[in-house]
Amino acid sequence: MLTDHQTLRYSRHLLLQQVGEGGQLQLQQAKVLLIGLGGLGSPAALYLAAAGIGELHLVDHDQVEISNLQRQILYRESDVGEDKVEAAERQLSDLNDDIELVIHAEKVTASNALTLVQGMDVVLDCTDNFAVRHAINAACKQAAVPLVSGAAIRLEGQLSVFDFRDAQSPCYACLCSPTGQEPKLNCANSGVLGPVLGVIASLQALAAIKLILGLPVVKGQLQLFDALHGDWQQFAIARSSQCPVCADH
């Protein structure tokens, strides 16, 4: 049951037929893992914390740099040099002290990914590293935890949702082979327009909330956003019979 304070705080959620008090209680009981507190993770974390996600796990091994502030809206100039997870915990606690924040100042690898993912209701991949993305994908598949994957560069963004509660779901490795080479283009050498990250991150947070509430979500598709022209494209992701992660061997 919601307290009077919570009823007032989340009143705009409670007015929604798709949420209501029951849905808000679901959000407060949910555990969400957000990996990567950069341009995608910053806006996504703010929306999830504001929504009242009961337990928000934050993973990042980097420190705040001055060049981050152009797009990583969770941080302030006074945070430069501090661990991102520490700065994020402080900012999100100020936003909503009603939630539990669990920070992990570590890099995700194939060795620790499953430990981080197990017990979560949803995982958000907000990273920019090819190997890390595949480690997260494999762990989510193994733990049967839904994965919301986002990416952005220059004036382009992409979003995919893989619901591994469905054994027939395709996975990130069906889209991008784990044996492929790390993409040569990244934000550090090619740039990115800040609000493009905000668009994708907001949709990641929205997908996570809808998955928790059991609302319809576009799954198993690659959604591409062309920010220059304001266009969206959608492509179905076929489950590969040769996929090393999700194929029936």
Number of domains: 1
CATH architecture tag = 3-Layer(aba) Sandwich
Strand content: 15-25%
Low-confidence stretches: none
DSSP helix count?
10
Write up what this structure looks like.
This protein is an alpha/beta fold and 249 residues long. The chain has one domain (11-236): Rossmann fold (3-Layer(aba) Sandwich), CATH 3.40.50.720. Helix content is 36%, strand content 18%. The chain has 10 helices and 8 strands. It has helices at residues 4-9, 11-14, 20-28, 41-51, 84-95, 113-117, 130-143, 172-175, 187-190, 194-213, and strands at residues 31-35, 55-59, 100-104, 122-125, 147-153, 156-162, 221-226, 231-236. An 8-stranded mixed sheet has the order 3-2-1-4-5-6-7-8, with helices on both faces. A hairpin with a 2-residue loop joins strand 5 (147-153) and strand 6. Helix 4 (41-51) runs parallel beside helix 5 and helix 4 runs parallel beside helix 10. The longest helix has 20 residues, at 194-213. The N and C termini lie far apart (46 Å). The mean pLDDT is 96.
Please sum up the structure shown:
This protein has 249 residues and is an alpha/beta fold. The protein has a single domain (11-236), classed as Rossmann fold (3-Layer(aba) Sandwich), CATH 3.40.50.720.
List the helices and strands and how they pair.
Layout: H1 4-9, H2 11-14, H3 20-28, E1 31-35, H4 41-51, E2 55-59, H5 84-95, E3 100-104, H6 113-117, E4 122-125, H7 130-143, E5 147-153, E6 156-162, H8 172-175, H9 187-190, H10 194-213, E7 221-226, E8 231-236
Parallel strand pairs: 1-2, 1-4, 2-3, 4-5
Antiparallel strand pairs: 5-6, 6-7, 7-8
Helix pairs in contact: 4-5, 4-10
